[in-house]
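Structure tokens please, single chain.
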Amino acid sequence: MAKKEKEAKGKADKKDKKGKKGKGGETTQGGSIAGHARAKASIRRTKGWAGLAGFAIAAFVSVQASVPMFQAGLRALGAGVVGYMLAWWVGVLVWRQLILAEQKAAYEIIERRRSEDAEPAGGEKPRTPQPTA
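Here you go.
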């Protein structure tokens, strides 16, 4: 019985070590699109609409050109995938710049507040009390 328990414990330890290997307190400096809620939602929505638009346009054009239905469907699927991928690429490019602009604006606000806190109110030098005789 003790031997089986040791083997089971050894296997559990190996599983724990494998699970912890790539995970942990790895943080990246700066913003990430994957961690930005608005960016994720916007890119997801854009990909969906672009895929549907590519599909619909290609299907319409193919049917108008009297292409057989099977080929029209294949063309529509291909155009939908291309639209989806292009929307993903453009969305990532746009949101990368937006996130950098947001970070720059936040940094400037922080610096402005620090400089305001450093200088006294009214922009004058503080007076030292004069001794009265």
